[in-house]
């Protein structure tokens, strides 16, 4: 069997990285000093690493992050923000996802809630946990469209299955009773089955006013409040202002 034939077969089996490594070994005398087992291990390791890297890229892309570069390592722990570094490090290990707990990210607009949420999402993707990031207003609009075109059950099944759902702009505006009912269904199908990160300007008591219907509000809050870690960003300084273009040219 010729080298070209072996390379062709590897490519046909979608092992292009292994094929490249094989050709590299055959054209370099440095590899001739290694045993067959060592050379074969190098080829398998490179193919495996490439596949893992591509898998991670796909997970991050499919998550729909606004900021795909968000990461735990780049979170700003300034004194004013009063962030619990230990808690964030603990959450980045993703045990809360395995245990089906939630995270509440609370703080004023512009304080970096979305960035931290996405950083936690990227941390989950690095462990090959499926993640979906979405603004609550967009999700509610999509659910209403799905209900009209007959794909509602399929969409709800997806929301139930995704291991980490990040809901940004959570209860930012007062909702209709129909909106509140949709939210209850989302929260209910995920309750103690999957994890959700809620990014909100308001603490749980403030959610009740946004949900308006007392019975629905109680049902939603009860399923979230007692089963969640809480991160409060106690800062009046906007991260957008601190990291904006004007700041960079000062």
Task: Break the fold down into its secondary structure elements and pairings.
Layout: H1 3-12, H2 16-26, H3 36-63, H4 85-92, H5 95-98, E1 102-107, H6 113-126, E2 131-135, H7 136-149, H8 152-161, E3 164-168, H9 177-190, E4 195-200, H10 204-211, H11 214-225, E5 228-233, H12 239-243, H13 245-248
Parallel strand pairs: 1-4, 1-5, 2-3, 3-4
Descriptive report:
There is one protein chain. With 250 residues, the protein is an alpha/beta fold. It contains 13 helices and five strands. The protein has two domains: 3-62, no CATH class; 64-248, P-loop containing nucleotide triphosphate hydrolases (Rossmann fold). The chain has helices at residues 3-12, 16-26, 36-63, 85-92, 95-98, 113-126, 136-149, 152-161, 177-190, 204-211, 214-225, 239-243, 245-248, and strands spanning 102-107, 131-135, 164-168, 195-200, 228-233. The chain has a five-stranded parallel sheet. Helix 9 (177-190) links the parallel strand 3 and strand 4. Helix 2 runs antiparallel to helix 3, helix 3 runs antiparallel to helix 6 (113-126) and helix 10 packs antiparallel against helix 11 (214-225). The N and C termini lie far apart (65 Å).
